[in-house]
Structure formats: structure tokens, C-alpha cells
Design goal:
The protein is built from 15 helices and 15 strands. With about 425 residues, the chain is α+β, with helices and mostly antiparallel strands. The chain has a 5-stranded mixed beta sheet. The protein has a 4-stranded antiparallel beta sheet with strand order 2-4-6-5, with helices on one face. The relative contact order is 0.08. Bound molecules: iron/sulfur cluster (SF4). Iron/sulfur cluster (SF4) binds next to helix 11.
């Protein structure tokens, strides 16, 4: 119901967040609060009042509780106000986490319908997207949670994850719009999440577990530092070079620009600009950082033998600080149904091991730090690769006199120039 008795609060502290050239969430909240024809205007006024109080006292006034929809164990974040006596209109301000479409592709019609649903049942405030990829429908009363979910569900959307469970996943815009894409990201995203949906809606793990899918090593979903299980597009043959475009680029920008901004910025010094303005890439030493490809987009592109690299254990700060993902599968082609089944199988093995062995409130990266990377790989049945060694052995009391012979024998057998497999080293 419209409540015109609620007045716009004085917000001198929040007002400061509207200064400057950047967009301000405070301006957004005020816009919603000023529209007295809408039922949520009073809610937004009291929300602004509570927020101003929080900034003044440096205290948060939201407390949790238990709110859900029928058949689901998570996906709604309850928020009850501790200062509801002062700000009654925003006493209940729950958030519905809704899973995004893979690749974040929406039609305008779908977005308009989402807005209509949220104007009817919520506060009108929607955030696209949260750090886990969720569409955050913020500001719902307890009474409206179920009808709001039903309306969104009718549109084909489902609740995401919350609590100790598989969390909502996200994939980058991918091959629909990006020429660097190395696999079908929406398909991988959809396949994996559909397979493990129960783990999302019925929290039963020691802590959260996140999948994310990026189409190339630019990693637009930040999966390496934000996902337990990062699936990143990769190629294993040579970078493709169009020398005509290289010459055109050099002609336009000049040799000094190319040397200063491309060649010398290659982290492994794998690039050489030749006298005839062509480019040579030492592909064996290229670490797929994407820098040269990003700068010379027309001239350079990922190779043709494409697939994914899987990394495990990324997370933001908690107990042992920030962690980046560690490679557990250097290359997996994702072309056939069998390849996708293998991706799901690896995901299942890792998640089951995590569910059985992690301590409460421990992420995968922390678990691996605790039990050791070698032990983890052995238990989930994944091959170790010499490239996974973080740093050379420092203990001098290890006999290495037969290592060279073992490495040579391995190379002869497998026809590779890589190092030796640990199990073959005596
Ligand atoms: Fe060097 Fe990165 Fe280009 Fe590879 S992708 S050649 S590492 S700049």
C-alpha cells in the first residue's frame, strides 16, 4: 500500500556519496523513494533513513532469520531490521537470489517482466548481478517472498544458492559476442548446474562451492580468484597470426609503440618484432596471458585446438587470505557430449571429496592447503603434472642422480619435451 505519511529523511552523509562523476546507488534509492505513486516509495524512504543512521553510528542494523520458499533450503537472504520501530516500512527487506541466464543474455521483454514482478511484490530495487552472478531482487516482505518467487519461476527462472551449498554460477558473454571464446560457455554452465541443482537448493556441504565459466584466459567472470572450480577457455596449439594485420598495426602505431606496449610486456619474452614488421611468437614459452592478443586483436587470436583449463581453490579473504585457483586439469577439449560428461564427472568427484573431507566453514583452497595438493589430486583421481610444481625442491637430502635418466625414458616413451612424471621418478 502507498504510505504517503513517510517523509523523505534527511541524509547529509549519504548525500556525499552522490558527489563526483560516477553513478551513485544513493541517487537510485532516492529516485525510487520520490515516486509516491508506487507502493514501495515508503519502503525506500525508511531504507534511506536506516542507512543514514548506520553511516552515522557505524553500525549495521540488519539481522538474519529463516525465510524460504516451498521445497527449497536456500536462495532467500532474510533481512529483518533492528530499528523497525523507527523505520517500520523497511522492517523486512529480504533478498531473492535468482540464477542468471548463462552468458547473461536477456531479452528486453524478460527484463521488463522482471521489473514488473518486483514492482508488484518487492521494492523495485534489482541488482544485476551479484558477485556470484545472482540477480539480486532486494527488498521483499516475508509475505511476498513466495508469490514473488512463483512469478519469477513462471518466467523460467530459478532460485540460486545461499549458505553451505553449491552457489549460483555465472558464465561470461562468451562466443555470442567475443572472438576470444575457446568453448561453448553457456552449454558448459547449463550442463554442470543442471546436473548439480540439488546441491544448490538443499544445502548439505561444509561451506560454499562455486563454479564459474570464462571463455578465455582474460577470465571475465573473475573465476580464478572467485570460484572454487574455475573453467577457463584455453588453446594448446599456436597463437594464430595474420602478418598482414601485424604490418597494418605496426604501420598505424609505429615500431616503438609495438615494442613498448606489446613485445616488452610479454611476461615470458615470447615475442619478437622482426625487421620486416612481422611478429614471431615463441609458442612453447607463451603462458597464454592474452596481453598481445588483447592489444593486437585483428592480428593475433587464440589457436584452433581449443578447450578448457580447470583450476581449483580460488576465493576471497577468509581464514588464510586470498587464494588464486590452482590448475588441476591443464587441458580438456569441450566439443563432444563425452567431453561435457567428463567435465561433470570431474566436478562431481571434486565436490564429493570436498563434502566428505572439508572442515566446517572451509573452502576448497583452504582444504587443499591443509591436506596437501598431491594428496588431494590422488584422492580425486586426477593426474599430476610436473608443471603443477609450485617451486623447486629445496631439501638437499634427496637423491636425484637417477632423475635425468627417468625423465629421458619418459620423454622417449611419450614423445614429449615436458618433464618427467613424478611416479616414474625413483
Ligand atoms: Fe606473451 Fe601473453 Fe602473448 Fe603469450 S599471450 S605471447 S605470454 S603476451
Amino acid at each position: 500500500m502507498t504510505d504517503v505519511t513517510r517523509k523523505m529523511p534527511d541524509t547529509p552523509i549519504l548525500d556525499q556519496l552522490e558527489r563526483g562523476p560516477w553513478p551513485s546507488f544513493v541517487s537510485g534509492l532516492k529516485r525510487l523513494a520520490r515516486d509516491d505513486s508506487k507502493p514501495y516509495a515508503a519502503v525506500m524512504k525508511d531504507l534511506l533513513g536506516q542507512l543514514e543512521l548506520s553511516y552515522k553510528t557505524k553500525k549495521g542494523y540488519w539481522k538474519g532469520g529463516t525465510i524460504g520458499v516451498v521445497g527449497y533450503g536456500g536462495g532467500v537472504i532474510p533481512r529483518f531490521s533492528e530499528v523497525a520501530d523507527k523505520y517500520p516500512a523497511s522492517a523486512e527487506f529480504h533478498t531473492l537470489r535468482i540464477m542468471p541466464a548463462p552468458g547473461m543474455h536477456y531479452t528486453t521483454d524478460v527484463l521488463r517482466k522482471m521489473c514488473d514482478v518486483w514492482e508488484e511484490f518487492g521494492s523495485g530495487l534489482i541488482a544485476l548481478h551479484g558477485q556470484s552472478g545472482d540477480i539480486m531482487f532486494q527488498g521483499c516482505t516475508s509475505k511476498n517472498v513466495q508469490p514473488a518467487f512463483d512469478a519469477l519461476n513462471e518466467m523460467g527462472f530459478d532460485l540460486g544458492g545461499a549458505g553451505p551449498a553449491l552457489r549460483t554460477s555465472m558464465s561470461c558473454v562468451g562466443h555470442a559476442r567475443c572472438e576470444h571464446s575457446c568453448y561453448d560457455e553457456p552449454r558448459a554452465h547449463r550442463t554442470v548446474i543442471n546436473e548439480f541443482l540439488d546441491e544448490m537448493h538443499r544445502p548439505a556441504m561444509p561451506y560454499k562451492f562455486k563454479f564459474k565459466f570464462s571463455g578465455c584466459p582474460n577470465d571475465c567472470t573473475n573465476s580464478i580468484q572467485r570460484a572454487d572450480f574455475a573453467v577457463i577457455g584455453m588453446w594448446r596449439d599456436d597463437i594464430k597470426i595474420d602478418q598482414k594485420e601485424v604490418r597494418a598495426f605496426v604501420g598505424e602505431r609505429g615500431r616503438a609503440y609495438v615494442i613498448d606496449n606489446v613485445v616488452t610486456r610479454c611476461p615470458t619474452r615470447s615475442l619478437r618484432l622482426n625487421d620486416d614488421d612481422t611478429l614471431t611468437v615463441d609458442n612453447r614459452n607463451c603462458v597464454r596471458c592474452m596481453h598481445c592478443i588483447n592489444v593486437m586483436t585483428k592480428a593475433l587470436s587464440p589457436g584452433d585446438d581449443r578447450g578448457v583449463t580447470i583450476l581449483l581453490g580460488g576465493k576471497r579473504t577468509l581464514k588464510v587470505g586470498d587464494l588464486m585457483g590452482t590448475v588441476i586439469v591443464p587441458f580438456l577439449p569441450l566439443k563432444t557430449d563425452e567431453d561435457y560428461a567428463q567435465l561433470v564427472d570431474i566436478g562431481r568427484r571434486v565436490m564429493e571429496f570436498f563434502a566428505d573431507n572439508a572442515l566446517e566453514h572451509e573452502r576448497t583452497g583452504e582444504m587443499i592447503e591443509r591436506i596437501g595438493f598431491g594428496n588431494f589430486m590422488e584422492q580425486v583421481g586426477l593426474d599430476l603434472d610436473p608443471n603443477m610444481v609450485a617451486h623447486p625442491r629445496t631439501n638437499p637430502y634427496v637423491r636425484m642422480d637417477e632423475w635425468e635418466a627417468a625423465a629421458a625414458a619418459y620423454r622417449a616413451r611419450h614423445g614429449t619435451s615436458g618433464g618427467s612424471r613424478p611416479e616414474e621418478i625413483p
